[in-house]
């Protein structure tokens, strides 16, 4: 596997990649009460960027997204959904690309093709933090950020993240989003927190628990959270074997 820092320049050229088309993946996890998004160093001026890349001539957008996700997370079976095409003619901040090409011109001499207009297909992926973090932590240029406290972003990537959040919010009444974000056994407070973050509002504890249990996706276990001797929280589990079938 090639070093991620050379992916754009080493693997993609104007000849082997689809002209003007890329994919960007919003990789989301839940950790310590926060929704996290995985970002990479863009390479100039401390900008961060989504994990994405250009589409090779011999692959579809979906295939490119799966390839990129496996490269950055080490996982191949990931909940992935295409949610929007970003095609604003002014979506690229050209100065960022000019600075990028100038900085890495010594690596490759064909970088000017990156100065063209690109449209990008947005995907969001839901992953369990503990399943990917060991792999991610080995890559110095990858970092988790609170989805509501983003750093300075490349191009329109902040907009792409916001649109992903909106898409997930719309899906929440249809499928149990927490299934892909939480471990096999979890506390109801964790699931409620996920909903609160995406809905951007506080939820009543008792009403939320009653509603979730009535929907039939979650069952209460005869277990409590270990490590807390007094009033340990009850644990819950999803009963759906694979929510991908509900999409």
TrEMBL record:
Span of domain Nudix hydrolase: 18-167
Pfam families named in the record: WHD_NrtR
Listed InterPro entries: NUDIX_hydrolase-like_dom_sf (IPR015797), NUDIX_hydrolase_dom (IPR000086), WH-like_DNA-bd_sf (IPR036388), WH_DNA-bd_sf (IPR036390), WHD_NrtR (IPR054105)
Protein name stated in the entry: Nudix hydrolase domain-containing protein
